[in-house]
Queue: 2 jobs
Job 1
Amino acid sequence: MARERLSLYDTTLRDGAQTHGVDFSLEDKWLIAEQLDALGLDYVEAGYPGANPTDTKLFGEPRALNAKSTAFGMTKRPGRSISNDPGFQALLAANADAVCLVGKTWDFHVDVALGITPEENVSGIKESVEAVVASGREALLDCEHFFDGYKANPAYALECAKAGYEAGARWVVLCDTNGGSLPEEVETIVAEVVKHIPGDHVGIHVHNDTDNGVANSLAAVRAGARQIQGTLNGLGERCGNANLTSIIPTLMLKPGYAERFETGVTPDKLRTLTHASRVLDEILNRAPNRHAPYVGESAFAHKGGIHVSAVQKDPRTYEHVPPESVGNVRKLLVSDQGGRSNIMAQLDRIGIAVPKDDPRVTRLLNTVKEHEAAGYAYEAAEASFELLARRMLGNVPQFFDVDSFRVMVERRHNALGELVTISEATVKARIDGDTVMSVGEGNGPVNALDNALRKDLGPYQSYIDDLELVDYKVRILTGGTDAVTRVLIESRDGEGNRWFTVGVSPNIVDASFEALLDSINYKLIRDGAPAPGA
C-alpha cells in the first residue's frame, strides 16, 4: 500500500526565536537553516520580513535551499488596502518561496483585538491569500487560536479557515496558540475540519503549554492533517512548540505511522538528527538536554547491573528504537562500541576513510573522550574535530609555530576626552625557520589577537587574506575562581565557506587563541597550502 506524504514545516527561526534568552544573528539563522535543509524538511520559516533588521536582511539576500524558504507575516491590516499596507508589502517583496499569513479565527479576537466585523475579517483573509497567490508564491494561512475559536463558535472558525482555502492557500494550518488543548480535543476538531477542507491541505501548529505538543501533533495526523509545524528541540515562547526532534523519528520508526506515512526525511538523514539537535544547542550557547527523547545523551544510557546485561543480550529490552537510527549512541559502562560507531560516523561525514578496525580509531576515540571530559564539544566544532582526526590518522603539516603571545587592554581618555578601551596583541611565530612578530589592535582582546595572528604569516598570507571571524561564543563550564571556559568561533572566507572551531582553558584568552589557531590551520589544510619547505 502506498504511503501518504506528510509535509514537515519548521519554524525554529521565527517561532523558536520567541524563546526567552534566544537571539539569532543573521549567520546563526543561515547555519540553522542549512542544518534543517540537510535534515530533509519541506519548509523552513526563516522569519518576519519588515519586523526587524535581521529578518529583513535575510529575505533580501536569499541563499539556495532545497526546502521552501518561507516568510511569515500578518494578513492585511483592517481598513487598509493591500497596496497601502507597508507590512504586507514587505511580505510581497521578500525573496521567499512561500508566505505564511497569520489570521484571526476566534470571533472574540476579531471583535476585541481587531475591532471589526466578522465579515470584514473573512474578507481580509481572502484578499490577503489571493494577493500572495497572485505574487507567484505559495500561500499558507495560519489560523491563530483556531481551537479556542472553534470551541467558542465552530461555524465562524470554519468559515475563516475555508475562506483561506478557497482563496488558494496551499495549507490551512490550525493553530493551538496558547497550547491549552488536549489530544482528544485536537483529534475531534481536526476530524471535523477535514470534512470541509481536504486533509492534504490541512496543517497543525501547536504549542506545548500542557506538555502535549508532540501528542497533539500526532493526534491531528491521525484525524487527517497532513502537515506538521514545529521547531527543532521544541524551541518557542513560554513552554515551547511541538518538538520536531521527537515528532520526526516517531513518524518514521513507530508502528501505526511508519507504514502509513512518509516524509522528506530519509533513514540516512534521520541519522543526522542528534547532530542537528546538538548543533542548535551549541549555537544557542546552552547545554543540550541530556534527557531529551531520541537525541539526549542519556536517551540510550544504561547504568550497570541488570540493565546492561539485558541490553547486551537484546537491546530491545530497554531501547524502543536503535540509537544509531537517530544518530545517537548507546552508553554502557562495559563497552565503548557505541563510541567507536559515533567516531566512524563523524569521520564518514567529513570524508575521512579509515577501516573500522584500525587501531588509530581507538586512539582517536580515547583522545576525544579525554578532550570532552576536559570541556571540549565537537558537535558544532567540526573543523576542530577534523584537525584532531587528521593529525591522529594522517600527516598534517606544521605550517607555523607560535612561540608566544601577549595581550594588553588599556582604558583611557582619547584626544577628544572620550573614555575608550583599546586592546593590543603581540604574536611571535616561527614559519619555516624564520621568526615573525606581529602587532594588532582590536575592539577586544580576541579581535586584537585575531588581527595580530593573521597580519603576517609569510608564505601562507595569501591563503588567509579572505579569512574573517564572524561569531564568537563563550560558555563557562565550571564555577569558582578556576572556572573552565569553552570558546566557539565561527569563521568565514571570501567564497562563503564557514566553519567552527573550539578552544578550552581556564583562561578565556587562551581558549580563544586555541580556537583561532584551529581556524587558520583548518583553512590552510582545506585550501591545500604546501608544507613548509615544499
Job 2
Amino acid sequence: MMGNTMKYLSMCCCLLWGTSLVCADDTDELKRIKENYTSMLLPVAEAVDSLQVDWNRIEPEREMSDQVVVELHQRYPFDLAKIEGYVAKLSDDGSWTDINYLDKKRSGWEPKQHAERILELAKLYCSPVTGYYRSETLKQVIHRALGYWFSAKHKCPNWWYNQIGIPKTLGTAFILLEDQLSGQEKAGAIEVMENSKFGMTGQNKVWLAGNVLIRALLQNDAELVKMARDTIASEIVLGRREGIKDDWSFHQHGPQQQFGNYGLSFVSGMSFFYRLFKGTAYEFDGPQVDILTSLVNEGYKWTIWNRMMDISALGRQLFHNAQLHKAYGLAFAAADLGIGGFPARGNLLVGHKHFDDSDYTVHRSKSWMGTVKMSSNRVIGTELVNEDNLKGYYLGDGATYFYVRGDEYLNVFPFWDWRKVPGVTAYEDVAPVPDINVTRSGNKTDNVGGLSDGKCGMAAMELNRDGLTACKAWLFTGDEVLCLGAGISSDSALCVTTSIDQRLQCGTLEVLDKNAWREVSGKENFLKEDLRFFHDRTGYVVLGSGNCMAEAGKRTGSWHDFMKMYRPATTEGEVVSLYLSHGVKPENAGYQYLVFPDSNKEAIKDFDVNGVNVIRNDATAQVVSMPAAGKGYWIAAYKPVQLDMEGLPLEIHVPGIYYVERENGCLQQKSVKPFRPSGKKRNFHFK
C-alpha cells in the first residue's frame, strides 16, 4: 500500500514538474517573440538597408489609406521636425488639433492618424538612435494621446478600421510600450484589441489573427498565441477559393486578381510573421516557407518593372504613387523572406506567362514589359469598394500597358479618359463612367485565356458587355506586340473606340507624314492607311485603313474624382492618347496595330509590314504568323472552325488558343490552351 502511495505521489510530482517546465518554456517563447517584435520595429543606428538608400525616391504621402503604404512609411527615418509638430499640436485632452475626428470617410479615415502618431511616438521613445530615447516629455505626450483614444472610442463607418486597421496599428505600439502601460491603460489596450476576433477568409483572416496574436502576447496567453499563429499559417496553402492560387496569383473578394491589394498585404504580413516566429517553436515549417517563396518568385516578380508595379496588379487601389509604393512594399517583404531580385534598374526576369486563374498576361523582354488584364465568367475584372476606383469600370476589359522605364503611367489617373483605358474597346461618352456596383454586368463569356511557349505568347478575349461585342487578341514577341480586334458590334447610338495607348507625355508625339516625322500638337484625326507614330521610346504602327485619333497636350483632373479619400483639388498634367474610332452602331468592325516598346524612330520608319501575316481576323478566329513569334501559326478560335492555313487545312473543335507548325506536309499542334468553361456562378458580397 505504501509503495503504491509513494508511486502515486512520485507520478504527481513528475506531472507538476513537467507542467512547470512547459509553463517556463512558454514564458521563454513569448519573451523571445516579444523581443523579435521589438527588434523588427525599432531602427538601429548603424544598420544600413540596401532598400532604404532609395528613400529620396519615395516621397512621403500626406493622405494614405492602404495598409501596405502606411507600413512602408513607418520604415522611414524619424522626421524629428514633424514629430515636434505632433507634440506642439497635442491638446490638453490628448487629441490633435489638426485631425478631423468627425470624419466619416470609408477610406482614408482621418482619425486613424491618431493611432499612427501614437505608434510613431512609441517607436521614437523606445529607439536609442535619437535624443528622444526614454524622454519624459515624449512619455507624457504618449500617455495623454492614449488616454484620449481609450475614452473617445472613435468608430469608422468602415468595419475594417475598427476590427483590423486601428488594432493593428495601436497593437504594435502596445507591444513597444508594454512596460510603460498602467493597469488602466493595459485594460484599455486589451479592449481595443478585443475588436479583432478569429474569422473571415484570405488576408482579412490573417490580419484579424495577427491582432489576436498581439492581444495574446499582452495577456501572456501561450495557448492563444499558438491558436493565432496556427490561424495565420493556415492561409499558407494553395487551392482555396480565396488566397494563393495554383498559378501563383492571389484572389480576394471572389475570383479576382488582387496582387497589389490584399495579396501584397498577405506577403508583407507573412514576411513579418516569418521573421517574428523565426528561432521559436512557432516558426513556419519548410513547405510553408516554400509556398511563400514561390508566391514571390513565380507570381509577384512578374508584376514588377524597375521597382514599379504594373497598374493591372494594383487592383482597385490606384493611389498617388501606388506603383512605386507597392513595388517597394514588396521588395521589403521579399528581403524579410531572404529573397532578392528586385533591382532598381535592369531586368532579371525574361519570359512570357499567362496567369490562368486570373485572366492576366505578362510579357517581359530584356528591355521592356507588357501586360494584359482580362475578365470572364470565371474572373471578376475589377471592383469598387469604399469609394476606391470610382471610374475603373473598364480596367478588366483588356487593359494593356507597356513599360520601358516603369513610370510611363505613374500618376496619370487624374488625367485619364477612363473610357479609353489603354487596350480597351468601349463606348465613347461624356456621361459618367458606369458604377461597377450598380452595373455589374461583367464580361459574359468563357472565351478568355492565354497560351505561352515561355518566350512568346498569345492572349485572347471575347468581349460581351453592355451590348458591345468584340474579339480581341494580343501576340507578344521579343520586339513587338501585335494587337487584333474583330467582330466589334453594337446597336448603341454611342461611338465605339479602341484605345491604343494613353499615358503621360514624355517628349513629343510624332507621326510619320510623307516619309518624315512631324510633331502632333493638340488633337488630330488620321484616316490614311499604314499610320506610324512615335512617343517616349515606343512606336505604334496601325495596319490597314481606319479612323485614328492622336492627341497630345495638357489636361486637368482631380484624384478625388475617382478616389474619394483625397481632398478635392485640381491638378494638371500632360497626356498622349492614341485611339481608333469604330463609329456608331458598328457591325463586325476590326483593327490591326503593332506596338514597339523600347524602339526608335528609324526602326519604326523602316519596319516592313509584310512580315506580319494576318491570315484571318474575324469573330470566329484570329490567325497570324510572324517570324519573331516562331515559324508556325498562332490561332485564337472562338468557335469550332475549319481553317485554311495557306493551303493546309486545320479543323478546330474546341475554342481556345493554338500554336501549330508545318511538318511533313501537314499542320501539327505544338501547344494548345482550350478556353476554360466557368463553374457554378456564385454571388460575392464585398465589405
